[in-house]
C-alpha cells in the first residue's frame, strides 16, 4: 500500500483526500499557492509546500514546481484530484517517469478520452451508443455546415478538447452555426490550446446521466451505479442525485453494461465516469464523454454503496484489490449533492469575498465536504465551488427533506452564495416529481 501521497490540488477535494489518507495511515502532502497559504487543507496536511503565486498556471498547473515538491518531501504517489492537471496525459506520464505512482488511469486512457472526436469513434467501435455527429474535426465553418446538414438541426458545437461543460454552444440553423462555430473555436484555442470542433446532434429535452466505473488492478472494469446530473447552469452541474429518478432496472442494466464496454475499450484503471445523454421520451442514451478522474459528485455514489472511492483509488494504484465485494453492487437509499458556490443565486455570476461567517449544518444523513471556513477568503483565481452539501435518506423524499433543512441551516456570510437557489429548487414541482431535464434551471429563471 502507498504510504505517502502528494495531492496536486486545493480546496475541498484536497481536504477530502487528506481525510481518507489519514484514516489509512498514509502521509499526505499538500501543495498550495501563495493565495491559499491560510486555507484549511494546508493546515490539515501532514506537510505543505508552496508551489507558486495565485495564478494557477504558475502554481497548481506548474508541473516542475509540483514534481520538485514531490521529490523534496519523498512521497511515493501523486493524486491529482479533479480539474487542474487531473486529465493531463503529459503530467501523468511525467509523474510515472519520475518513479512516482500516479493515482489515476494511465496516460494512454487519458489521452484517448481527452479528444471528444477520438473518444466518440472509439466508443462507437466498442459498441457503445453515440449520438449522431462528426467523425472528424470540422476544420472550417463549411465543414461544420456540411456536418450539420447531414445530422440535422439543431446541433451542438463542441470544443473537441474541452470538458466540464466548457466550450459548447447550440446552433439552430446555418446562420447560428456560423456565429457559434467561430466563438467555440476561438474559446477552444484560448482555453485548451486546440481549436478542433465537433458537431453533434442537439437534443432539446435530455437528461444527463453518468456511471461510476472502477478499473481494477487485476484488469477488470466494473460499473457501480448511475448518477443524475441534469440540474445545470451553462452546461455545468449544480445538483446531482443517485440513483437517477429516470432510470429503472432494465435501463440501468444497459447503462452499466455500456460503461463497462467504454472502460474496457481503453484498458481503464482506477476511478472514472462515463457520461451519457438520456432521451427520456425513448429511453435511448448516448455516450457524451469519459471523465478520466474522480468526479466532484463522487460522494453520492459513496453513500448509496457504503464505500470510500478515494480509498479504492489508492488501493488500485497500489496494485491491491478493492476493499468491498465487487460482485455485489446493490445500492441502498438515496443521496443528493448540492454544489455550494460563491455566486449570485439568480444569474450565477461569481461573487468572491472574505468569509465572515461559516456554520455548516449537521445531523442524520448530512455530510459537508467543504474547502473554506470563517476567516478564509474566496479569491477570484479559482473555481467558485466552496463546499458540497451531501444528503442521504432511506428514499428520495427523505433525502429531499434533509436537504431542505440543511440548506436552511447552512450559514455563510461574506461572499455571494447560491443557497437561496437550492431552497427554491427543493420546492420546485418539476424537480420534486423527478421528471426533469437539463432545461430545468432555465425554466426556473
From TrEMBL:
UniProt GO molecular function: ATP binding; biotin carboxylase activity; metal ion binding
Keywords: ATP-binding, Biotin, Ligase, Nucleotide-binding
EC number(s) from the headed UniProt entry: 6.3.4.14
Domain ATP-grasp per the UniProt entry, residue ranges: 120-318
Stretches assigned to the Biotin carboxylation domain: 1-445
Pfam families per the UniProt record, alphabetical: Biotin_carb_C, Biotin_carb_N, CPSase_L_D2
Protein name: biotin carboxylase
Lineage, broadest ranks: Bacteria, Bacillati, Actinomycetota, Actinomycetes, Micromonosporales
Amino acid at each position: 500500500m502507498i504510504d505517502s501521497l502528494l495531492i496536486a490540488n486545493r480546496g475541498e477535494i484536497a481536504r477530502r483526500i487528506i481525510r481518507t489518507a489519514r484514516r489509512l495511515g498514509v502521509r499526505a502532502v499538500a501543495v498550495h499557492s501563495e493565495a491559499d497559504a491560510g486555507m484549511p487543507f494546508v493546515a490539515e496536511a501532514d506537510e505543505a509546500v508552496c508551489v507558486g503565486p495565485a495564478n494557477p498556471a504558475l502554481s497548481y498547473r506548474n508541473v516542475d514546481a509540483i514534481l520538485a515538491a514531490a521529490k523534496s518531501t519523498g512521497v511515493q504517489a501523486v493524486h491529482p484530484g479533479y480539474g487542474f492537471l487531473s486529465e493531463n496525459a503529459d503530467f501523468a506520464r511525467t509523474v510515472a517517469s519520475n518513479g512516482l505512482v500516479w493515482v489515476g488511469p494511465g496516460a494512454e486512457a487519458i489521452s484517448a478520452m481527452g479528444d471528444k472526436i477520438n473518444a466518440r469513434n472509439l466508443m462507437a467501435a466498442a459498441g457503445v451508443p453515440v449520438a449522431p455527429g462528426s467523425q472528424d474535426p470540422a476544420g472550417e465553418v463549411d465543414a461544420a455546415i456540411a456536418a450539420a446538414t447531414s445530422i440535422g438541426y439543431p446541433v451542438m458545437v463542441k470544443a473537441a478538447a474541452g470538458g466540464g461543460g466548457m466550450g459548447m454552444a447550440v446552433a439552430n440553423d446555418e446562420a447560428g452555426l456560423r456565429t457559434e462555430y467561430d466563438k467555440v473555436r476561438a474559446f477552444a484555442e484560448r482555453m485548451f490550446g486546440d481549436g478542433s470542433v465537433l458537431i453533434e446532434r442537439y437534443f432539446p429535452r435530455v437528461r444527463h446521466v453518468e456511471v461510476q466505473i472502477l478499473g481494477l488492478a487485476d484488469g477488470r472494469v466494473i460499473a457501480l451505479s448511475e448518477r443524475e446530473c441534469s440540474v445545470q447552469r451553462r452546461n455545468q452541474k449544480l445538483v446531482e442525485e443517485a440513483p437517477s429518478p429516470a432510470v429503472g432496472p432494465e435501463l440501468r442494466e444497459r447503462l452499466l453494461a455500456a460503461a463497462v464496454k467504454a472502460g474496457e475499450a481503453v484498458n481503464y484503471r482506477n476511478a472514472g465516469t462515463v457520461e451519457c445523454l438520456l432521451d427520456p421520451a425513448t429511453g435511448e442514451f448516448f455516450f457524451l464523454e469519459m471523465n478520466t478522474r474522480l468526479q466532484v459528485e463522487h460522494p453520492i455514489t459513496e453513500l448509496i454503496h457504503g464505500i470510500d472511492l478515494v480509498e479504492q483509488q489508492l488501493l488500485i494504484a497500489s496494485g491491491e484489490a478493492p476493499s468491498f465485494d465487487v460482485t455485489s453492487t446493490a445500492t441502498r437509499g438515496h443521496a443528493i449533492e448540492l454544489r455550494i458556490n460563491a455566486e449570485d443565486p439568480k444569474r450565477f455570476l461569481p461573487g468572491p469575498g472574505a468569509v465572515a461567517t461559516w456554520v455548516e449544518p449537521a445531523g442524520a444523513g448530512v455530510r459537508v465536504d467543504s474547502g473554506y471556513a470563517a476567516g478564509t477568503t474566496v479569491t477570484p483565481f479559482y473555481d467558485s465551488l466552496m463546499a458540497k452539501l451531501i444528503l442521504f435518506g432511506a428514499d428520495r423524499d427523505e433525502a429531499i427533506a434533509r436537504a431542505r433543512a440543511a440548506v436552511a441551516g447552512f450559514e455563510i456570510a461574506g461572499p455571494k452564495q447560491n443557497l437561496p437557489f437550492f431552497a427554491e429548487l427543493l420546492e420546485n414541482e418539476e424537480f420534486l416529481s423527478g421528471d426533469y431535464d437539463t432545461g430545468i434551471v432555465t425554466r426556473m429563471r
